[in-house]
Design goal:
This protein is about 80% helix and about 0% strand. It is mainly alpha-helical and about 140 residues long. It has two domains: about 70 residues, no CATH class; about 35 residues.
Length: about 140
């Protein structure tokens, strides 16, 4: 089943471009056709005696047919990367943002471990619940 991840990923950019062009009906028809094709493949292989491999083939057929349909409908072909003004600023901003997130996660884990270990051995459920309640207000604020 792991090839399904690869097959799904090779259609992402083409599907995004189709949706950006507001070709939602094309994307929907492509998805329905892929699922119908996968159903036919699974049924045919099931009758041919492939057993549970028919289900695997059907599951792998969906992302493969979605990718092929997206490529046919979009017709965009990726090119080699090139320098564009403003790209360096965008990369630096994203790198800084990534380091900030990593630092926050690390500090959260480091802050949770020492103080929580003393309480953990006595009552692990209470510490976990208190920590979750402590993080609840900022997390709900950031979602909205």
């Amino acid at each position: 089943m792991s090839p399904a991840i690869f097959l799904s990923s090779i259609a992402v950019q083409h599907l995004a471009l189709l949706k950006r062009a507001m070709r939602f009906s094309t994307v929907s028809i492509n998805d329905i056709a892929a699922r119908a094709g996968a159903l036919l493949v699974a049924i045919a292989l099931g009758f041919a005696g492939f057993g549970y491999w028919a289900l695997v083939a059907g599951a792998l057929t969906v992302p493969a047919m979605v990718a092929i349909g997206a490529w046919v409908q979009c017709r965009w072909i990726p090119g080699l990367p090139r320098r564009v003004p403003g790209t360096g600023e965008m990369v630096r901003f994203r790198a800084q943002h990534l380091w900030t997130i990593q630092f926050q996660l690390l500090s959260r884990e480091c802050g949770q471990s020492p103080s929580g270990l003393a309480i953990w051995f006595q009552r692990p459920g209470f510490y976990k619940k208190a920590y979750d309640l402590f993080l609840l207000p900022p997390a709900s604020f950031l979602r909205h």
